[in-house]
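Quick one:
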Amino acid sequence: MAKILGLRRRASQRTLLSQADFTYIGSFRVPSASGGGASDPNPSLAFAPGILCHRYVDGVLRFGNLSRGVHYFEFNHPGSAVEAAANDLPLATVQQYWGDAHSDIYDLANAGVNGNNVYGMTFDPLDNSKMYSNFGGTYGGSSAQKAVGLTTFNDAGGTLTQVDSWSLDGVTNYHVRAGSLWIPQAFANANCSGRRLGVGFGSLGWSTVAGSSAGPAMYAVDPPAAEAGDLPKTRLMLYPFGGTRARRDPDYTGGIFGTAAGGTSNTITLSSTWYAHDQATGSDIIGLDITIDSGTGDGQTRTITGYSGH
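Output:
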């Protein structure tokens, strides 16, 4: 099942999105199989990677996904329903089964002993025949594994070509394996030497891996086509990996439990987070509402507020 959100823009002093900018349009059901039949080693979508991308073909919106056999296929948007039981939602149909789009460019030599995953897929908005994907080993993998791959699509002939994959110059796979997005050209020109493909998100993979997140990370690169060697990049956001994490009390011992004076056990529960913008000071405000229960049943809510200062 897919949920569709529409973006409603409004004039403001800053380009900041809030809940009021979004309108829930509705949901629809995705196909249960890739449509590849015997050509797909596992055409089911049960336990499939669940990655969703989109593009327009002859002006018509298509969504793309991977089967459990990790073969790529595209389906239509059948319309959306706001209020309907799950089985009554509009059902999308497969428009094109493309097959294996990644295995030749995975860089399996560096993927680790547990295989490889595709973590992200996105089509170039300036050329809908080019799909960029992000790769990483299933359980950690290798920091040396190439993270960004290119697959091209020939819609007239119904064929695809796995072109190549790349690493970013001096950047670990752990920082750039999780996904890609497109940077507005004006921002890219002003801040990224014109580089408009953002790669990053910083995930290591499954949560069972020690240190499974590398935190938020984003680099800008030129969309690669036939480059040799690693890709030049502009760093936009990075979180330390393998070293100090976020700021933390030096006496912190882990978990959500602490010890109060006298040895009483504290249970700390995060109940909500919120965001606001102070127009008077120009500061972004991030707040956390937490409940602290000292074990006597007298839980009280406390609010912690932090100013980002920009």
